[in-house]
Amino acid sequence: MNSFLTMIVGTPIRLRHPSIRVIALPMLASLGVGYELSSSSNLVTHAGSLLLLGLLGFQCWRMQGQRWPRPQAAAHTPPEVVEPTSRAQILSSQVLQACGDAVVVSDGLDRIVMVNPAFLTMTGLSPSEVVGHSAELLGMAPLRDSHLSGVRASLQAALRWSGESTQTCADGQQIDTCLTVTALRNEAGQITQHIRTFNDITALKQQQRMLAEQARHDSLTGLPNRRAFTERLQQAMSRARRQPQTLAVLYVDLDGFKSVNDRHGHAVGDQLLVEVSRRLDACVRLTDCVCRLSGDEFTVILEGAGHPDEVQRIGNRILERLSSPHLLDGQRVVVTPSIGGTLFILGDNANTLCQRADATMYEAKRAGKARFVLNLHQTEKRQAQVT
Question: Who wins on pLDDT, 255 or 53?
Answer without folding.
Answer: 255
